[in-house]
Amino acid sequence: MDDPQTRRHQRIQRLVADGGASLFADNRIGLEKESLRVSPSGRLAATPHPMALGAALCHPYMTTDFSEALVELITPPLNTSTAALAFLQDIHGYVYRHLGDERLWTTSMPCALETGQNIPLAHYGTSNAATMKTVYRRGLGNRYGRTMQLIAGVHFNFSFAETFWERYQTHEADAGEPLGFRSEAQMDMIRNLQRRGWLVPYLFGASPAVCASFVQGRATELQRFDDDTLYLPDATSLRMGDIGYQNKQEEGTGIKANYDSLDSYVRSLTWAIQTPCPQYENIGVKVGNRYEQLNANVLQIENEYYSTVRPKQVTDWLEKPTLALRRRGIRYVELRSLDVNLFEPLGVGSEQLLFLEVLLLDCLLLDSPRIGAAERREIDTNQILTAHHGRKSGLHLAHERQPVMLSQWADEILDGMAAVAELLDGAADGPRSVNLRRQKEKITHPELTPSAQILEMMRDRREGFCELAQRFSGEHRQTLLRLPLNPEHQALFDQLARDSLRQQQAIEAADNLGFDDFLSAYFTQGQRASGQIG
Fold it and tell me: Is residue 274 situated within a structural domain?
């Protein structure tokens, strides 16, 4: 029987023979980039989301995340990384033209913070839908603390072209229904992305240090850089480590999303949303006249479950994400492990995106057995080790229950990706192939990684974390304000701002239920007599 590497090679050869790079011409890439709004002095902005940007409830490209001060900028799905970055640049340029002297914080880890309760929750208006979004965020703050929710990142959304899927299903001799084939192939890819996920913080992690205010007195293994900065000397991405966002309820409930199949994934999240958690029951749900959380279950809603990669489907208005996945399958995959890159004005650049295109296709073409309990522990351990100590010489990870040097395993993975890069480029020295070689240099020269460069700069300039981030935030603001704004995009954003404000007003006017009844209807949508979600 052929081994997995041989089967991947055969798949690549069939794709080359059947059109090669042209099969992927209509792939789609989308970006979501989070940034804190801060004052010129580097303090969390106390101002509301600028009305000139439109209504955060309804705007497709400019919204907020946990806090009113945490901006989320979103591109539509576009067919090249260049197009996605160009659109993201124009969003940044537009936002900056309406921020006054505020700027967007240019790292994943937050600016200097006071107490968590001073962090304002995002506000979306007076409608039931708006109230639900704010209550969910209040629940996150009550469960995990508000400080943790200010960690920012970049999400890479990716879908393969229709032409590719048609040919790939034929190559795999699968006569099943296309939607099912594509969903399960992408679940296979997600499992491989989890196995190899530590590569992303190693290569692109940009959070080796944090402001001391972030830990709020908690005990950590972090070392002191100066009076205001904590760090680890070989860290790559503290955001992805155990001081970053984690589902702490896993320890008490044993919840883990099940990635064996799309159905297993949906069922595992549905169970968590429907199952009470004593720890959260102590918080209360409706205390007096105010909701402290949406429910007291293991998860309030699907998005609360933290994962480095998620299967996604575009949802209809107020449709539950698990229902959308069950009804229409996987539309795209969301990779969530990219730090905001301090050295990029947009927080992300072509170097990351070209690599991720290759990584995702490689993970799709590789065999992907189910992940058992032992391998799940390996995946979690490898992520923490790489986040905290990824550049440490001789660091070993766990692979198939055996220790393996990170550098050796990384070399093997990147060597195997070369043929996939060539397939996507349509040539041996295309941009993805050249970029892959650049990433390979970081394995033997960890000083080339963003995390190492940040610490080196801090040492050379005797500059703490917040000083460094504040300086770059100001420089990037000037850069983005100087860049011209595409007139078509400016007109589009102006129109969307007006439209979104009108949409918010219409939603508020159309409310015909009290919030209690609205919430009950939301959580019971799609239930059949059997009690199963369908």
Answer: no
Average pLDDT over the chain, rounded to an integer: 94
DSSP string, 246-263: --THHHHH------SSHH
* 443 inside domain: yes
SS3 221: coil
pLDDT digits (tens, 9 = 90+) for 160-179: 999 999 999 999 999 999 99
Q: How far is CA 403 from the centre of its chain?
A: 28
* Concatenated DSSP letters of 49-115: PPGGG--TTT-SSEEE-SBTTEEEEEPPPBSSHHHHHHHHHHHHHHHHTTSTT-EE--SSS--B---
DSSP classification of residue 285: S
> What residues have CB less than 8 Å from 190, skipping those under 6 apart?
259, 309, 310, 311, 333, 363
14-35 burial, b if ≥16 CB within 10 A, otherwise e?
ebeeeebbebbeebbbbbbbbb
Kindly tell me if the per-residue pLDDT of 245 is higher than 80. Answer: no
Distances (CA, A) of 42 to 147, 383, 479: 16, 30, 18
Q: Which domain holds residue 310?
A: 4-246+306-509
Q: Which of 16, 111, 58 is nearest to 340 (CA)?
A: 111
CA dihedral 344, 348, 349, 355 (to 10 degrees): 140
In a domain, 526, yes or no: no
Cβ burial of 354 (10 Å; 0-12, 13-18, 19+) is: buried
Cα 182 from Cα 177, distance rounded (Å): 9
Q: How far apart are CA 64 and CA 120, in angstroms?
A: 12
Separation between Cα atoms, residue 226 and residue 462, nearest integer Å: 9
**Is residue 194, in this structure, part of any structural domain at all?**
yes
CATH number where 48 lies = 3.30.590.20
Q: Is 335 helix (H, G, I), strand (E, B) or coil?
A: strand
Share of the chain above pLDDT 70, in %: 96
Can you give the pLDDT at residue 361? 98
Based on C-alpha coordinates, what's the Rg of the chain? 23
Contacts of 329 (CB under 8 A, 6+ apart): 179, 180, 182, 183, 262, 313
* Rounded-to-5 percentages of helix, strand, coil across the chain: 50, 15, 35
Q: How far is CA 494 from CA 76, 208, 246, 472, in A?
A: 16, 38, 37, 28
Q: Which residue would you say has higher pLDDT here, 428 or 510?
A: 510
Question: Does the structure show a pLDDT above 60 at 251?
Answer: no
Decide if pLDDT at 247 tops 70: no
Find out whether 406 and 386 touch, Cβ atoms under 8 Å: yes
Number of domains in the chain: 1
Report which of 152, 156, 226 is spatially closest to residue 473, judged by C-alpha positions: 152
- Which residue did the predictor score with more confidence, 356 or 427? 356
